[in-house]
Amino acid sequence: IAGTMGGRSLLFMALGLVQATAGQGTGATDQNLADESDWASTSGVEELAWGTEKWLLWPLIFYMFYAQATVCDEYFVSAIKVCVEKFNIPEDVAGATLMALGCNGPELFTNFIAIFITHSDVGVGTIVGSEIFNLLMIVGGSIVVAPELPLELNRVTFTRDCFFYALSIVGLALALQDQVISANEALALFGCAIVFVVCVVFTKPFAVKFLNESPGAVRLQKGQVRIAVLHNNRMHDAHHIEPQTVAMSTTVSGIVCKDPTAKDQAAKVPVVRTLSNRTASQNPLLELTDISWSDIVAIHDVSGANFKLEFKGESGDPYVMNIEAVDDKAKLEYIEDISRNINTSPGAGSWIGYARNSLALVQDKKVSLASRLAHLICLPVELSLHLTIDWCDPKQPSKAHLWMAAFCMSMVWLGVFSYAMCTAADALHDAFGISTGVLGITVCAFGTSFPNFWASIIMAREGRSAMAIANALGSNVQNVFLALAVPWMCATQLPVRHGFPIVATGIFQSVLWMGGTLLVLVVFACTSGFKLTKGHGYVLMLLYVIYVIYGCETA
């Protein structure tokens, strides 16, 4: 079917249509439907080939955004994390390379599919639009919801990330100006990714030696551990987290972290700060100091004196606590003590049991109707992933050694969902006459970046707005140097192609927007002493609204 009728026919099938449906509404013959070039070249047929069913394309493409985010967060990034631990890759290197690959997985696969299969500009449009969304909405939103203002930025890392982001914008503008990507341009962008990784690795030693920054970690004493808590999503880079030293102990009810320097021996240390359900007159921050045994999901042994604890917060949000003990002996004692008190069974069991539990949740009247409806809509994707990847789920300690299989299966599903998204974008272009470039920089960019936005808002509410901003800027840098450059590099190395054209309708203007919005952020930081206020956040978010209106006017 794909060979004779093209990708659009798959959408007709997905929507429950048959060939005759489109033929009756348009007068098109079977010959027209089979010949994709004739079908696509006649504007009158394009406008009439779709009836009211064209509106179903919008929920379809947004459903694919959700599917991409799910497979990326649940399996792709988890497999990469196991790889990092297995080969003892330093956190700075992993954050700037492998974890950047995982964070930008949807954009990367969208660009691959757009170049090699659907042959459209939706890939580059998606990435360029994501850059602007990340800078304006993630940075702006993180400032607005920050519990403590003004928000102070780390001058060294902020300057580094802004410099490389500016370099990526200049490189992208030069590559797009003639609307043809050459092999040298692709290689140059990828080379910048390597330079960026080297700079990330040496930023901390440079700052300590020449800028008198604190070297950070001090030697642990007996009974102490060093912890760093991450909200379990792909926007968290561990090297942006400032670890804290605590005295960790176990009780009958769970794990308690105390301040080792406090005179009051009962002084507890909050390991997680989240928004609670309290009224506005009360303190909106909930400080989680105790982790009950029932909330602990799993414990993992890592290299050296390090181990990892997975647990759930008050609202069920997943967290990961990276823990460094005094030595290997202390680590093993902690692991043995904690393992005795928790149930580390694989969990969901067979896919039949998973489906039964999911359906039971849908029928549970104690759960809100909106939650049950959302779960029912998401069930096909979650059940499909559970059925095909659960056997090698790297989040389960007993299956962590199968991380490579999970990585490959995640790539397959990312490819499938990215293909469906690109095909839906092409169909939206045919049905509504919106250019694929404009679709990429608006709809597709919003869809692929929204999970990152939500994850960053959660981080910001926990008091980690600076970290969310650093991750957004770092993600933008590697979006250009990896998610764009790697597919371009592969395409230009083919023997039949030494360069390929890009119809940059609306895209080049968006690259100029990238430079302009970065300049606004830099001016805000420099004029306020690297301290951002809520007003700065609102201005950045307002700029994104203006950008979207501009994109719609372009369409």
Q: Concise description?
A:
This protein is an alpha+beta fold. 61% of the residues lie in helices and 11% in strands.
Amount of beta strand: 5-15%
Helices and strands: which structural class? Answer: alpha+beta
Mean pLDDT over the full residue set: 76
Strand arrangement in the largest pleated sheet: 8-5-4-3-11-10-9
Tally the helices: what do you get? 21
Query: Total number of β-strand segments?
Result: 13
The CA-CA distance between the termini, in Å, is: 31 Å
Radius of gyration from the alpha-carbon trace, in angstroms: 25 Å
Assembly category:
single chain
Overall morphology: globular
The share of residues in helices is 55-70%
Low-confidence stretches: 1-48, 274-286, 344-349
Mind summarizing the main beta sheet? 7 strands, antiparallel
Walkthrough of the structure:
The protein is an alpha+beta fold. Helix content is 61%, strand content 11%.
